[in-house]
Amino acid sequence: MLLNLLKAKIHRATVTHAELHYEGSCAIDGRLLDISGIREYEQIHIWNVNQGTRFVTYAIRAEEGSGTISVNGAAAHLAAIGDLVIIAAYGQCDEAEAAKFKPTCVYVDRDNRLTHTNQSIPAQAA
Q: What does the pLDDT profile of the chain (126 residues) look like in tens digits?
């Protein structure tokens, strides 16, 4: 059996652009793509912390070190400049791989500059 697991996430990035008339996708600072392991053209899920919207698109590379998070095309209706978003990618593993797998979690500041990475998500307190 294959399991869908969180492969990587960029946590609480700030939307810098919302380009309705662009061809679609989400442009992400190339450095953040490289650190997270999210590949250009890979399917991503975006969860808008401010608006509560969720949508699926694909990643494209923005200039390295630019801090760009640009939600493009029709998805631009679901995010505004300044919104906080969580960008996630998933992968498939068999059960043996899943037992050893750890996701790459990338954390950024308000300017989308790397603060730290982690390979786990803290347990939620009661």
A: 999 999 999 999 999 999 999 987 999 999 999 999 999 999 999 999 999 999 999 999 999 999 999 999 999 999 999 999 999 999 999 999 999 999 999 999 999 999 999 998 888 988
This prediction has a pTM of: 0.95
Please identify which residue in the block is written with the tokens 């498939």. Answer: 92
Spatial contact of 69 and 14, defined as CB atoms under 8 Å apart: yes
- The Cβ-side half-sphere exposure at 67, using a 13 Å CA radius, reads 13
Annotated binding site: 57, 73-75
> Is position 107 annotated as part of the catalytic site?
no
Residue by residue, DSSP assigns 23-78 as: -SEEEEEHHHHHHHTPPTT-EEEEEETTT--EEEEEEEEEPTTS--EEEEGGGGGG
Residue written as token pair 């969720």: 54
22 an active-site residue? no
